[in-house]
Amino acid sequence: MSKIHNFSAGPAILPQVAIDNSIEALKDFAETGLSLITVSHRAKEFVAVMDQAVANAKELFGIGDDYDVIFIQGGASTQFCMVPFNLLPINGKAAYLNTGTWATNAIKEAEKLGNVEVVASSEESNFNFIPKNYSIPNDAAYFHITTNNTIYGTELHEDLDVNVPLIADMSSDIYSRPVDVSKYDLIYAGAQKNIGPAGTTMVIVKKGILGKTGRNIPTMLNYETHIKKESMFNTPPVFPIFVVNETFKWLKSIGGVEEIYKLNKAKAQLLYNEIDNNPLFKGTAAVEDRSIMNVTFVLKNDSLDADFLDYCKNANISGIKGHRSVGGFRASLYNALPIESVQALVDVMQAFSQKFG
Ligand SMILES: *Cc1c(COP(=O)(O)O)cnc(C)c1O
Fold it and tell me: What ligand 1 atom has the least distance to the C-alpha of 10?
C-alpha cells in the first residue's frame, strides 16, 4: 500500500502505532488469548485500560482531582442536549456563541430545554470569523463555545475569561494545544477528530456543578450516572476507548501537548504561507481566527476545482475536498498528521500553479 496523506476532517488520521497496537489487541488483548472486542468490560484487563485512559487524559491536560473525566457514547451531538439537561435550570437562561454549524446545532438543542441567548454570531458572513465584542448576561447559567469550527476553519486560540461558567465543545482541537482546564466547567469532545475512532465522547466535568437544575434527567443523559460508575454504568465502547488510550500514550511519548502544539503551529504556518503566496489560492477564514486544525481555502477560479482534486489524488493526497457549506478545500491537520504530508500538499499546490497559473 503506498503512503496516503490523510487530510480527512473526521473520522481522521490516527498515529500508526495506535492502529498497530489496536490491531494486536483485536487479535490478543493483553495476553488474555482473547480479542479485545470479545471480553467482558468488567475484566480486570479492560478496567485497567479505562483507568489508564482517564489517567492519561488528566495527565496530558494537567487536570486535577477537582474534575471527573468520563468516556460515553452518542457523539458530540448528544452533548448538545446533555449540557442543558444537566446545567440549565428550569426557567434559567444559557448563553451561546454561534460560530458555525456545530454551535448552531448546540443552540437548537438548548432551545428545546430553556431560554437561550445567542450573544453573538458570525452567520451573516458564513462563519468566517469568531465574534469578539459581546457581553454575556450575568444571570446565564453558562456560556457555551465551540473552540474550533471544523467546517469553517476558525479557532479560538486562547482560553476565554468570562463572567459565567464556561462550557466548550473541543471536538476538533482537543489536545492540539495546552488548555487551562481550570477556566472551564465542562469540556466535551467526540473522539473521531483528534483522539480516536468514532464511538466515544470524552467529557471533562468540574466537580460540584451537577444536580442543580431541578430537572428529572433521563438516566443515560445524566452525567452523574456515568461519573458514579466510572463510565461503566452500561457497556462502554471498549474498542474506541482502547484506541483513545493508545493515542494518548503516543502523544505522551512525543512530549505531550506542548510539543504537539509547536508541531501543529509549524504545519499550519507551512500551509497558510502557501495559500497566501500562491496566486491561484486564497484562504476563507479571517486571518486572526485561522484554525491550526482545519485549513479552509479555495481556488480563486473555481472552475479549476476538479483539476486540483485530480492533482491531489495523483499525489496520494486524500480527504481534501471542502465541506459543502464552504466549498473549495479543507485540509485537516490533526495531531497525527506528519508535517511531511503538509509539505506534499504544498508541493502539489506549487506544481498546480506552475501549470495553471
Ligand atoms: C464533528 C463535530 C461535532 C459532531 O460530532 P459527532 O460526534 O458526530 O456528534 C460536534 N462539534 C464539533 C466541533 C465537531 O467537529
Answer: 1
Q: Examine the pLDDT at 229 and tell me if it is beyond 80.
A: yes
Amino acid letter for position 270: L
DSSP 8-state symbol, 48: H
Domain 255-356 has CATH 3.40.50.970: no
Kindly list the distances between the CA atom of residue 203 and the CA atoms of 68, 167, 185, 354, in Å, as whole numbers in the listed order.
Answer: 8, 11, 11, 47
Q: Which of these is catalytic: 68, 159, 169, 173?
A: 169
Name the percent of the chain lying above pLDDT 90: 99
Tens of pLDDT, residues 253-275? 999 999 999 999 999 999 999 99
Q: What is the pTM of this model?
A: 0.98
Handedness of CA 225, 226, 232, 238 (dihedral sign): positive
Q: Which whole-number Å values give the CA distances from 2 to 12, 149, 317, 340, in the listed order?
A: 18, 31, 11, 15
Assess whether the C-beta atom of 76 lies below 6 angstroms from ligand 1: yes
Same fold, 16-253 and 255-356: no
pLDDT at 2: 64
Looking from the CA of 50 toward its CB, the CA atoms found within 13 Å total 25
Give dist(CA 245, CA 197) in Å, integer.
11
* pLDDT tens-place string over residues 63-114: 999 999 999 999 999 999 999 999 999 999 999 999 999 999 999 999 999 9
Distance 280 CA to ligand 1 centre (A): 31
Helix 256-277 with 339-356: angle, nearest 10 deg: 0
Domain limits of the chain? 16-253, 255-356
Distance CA 173, CA 28 (A): 32
Q: Which atom of ligand 1 is nearest to the CA of 198?
A: 7
| 16-253 placed in CATH 3.40.1050.10 | no
Check if 3 is active-site. no
Q: Name the residue with cell 504530508.
A: 341
Give the Cα separation of 201 and 171 in Å (integer). Answer: 9
How many whole angstroms separate alpha carbon 100 and alpha carbon 153?
Answer: 10
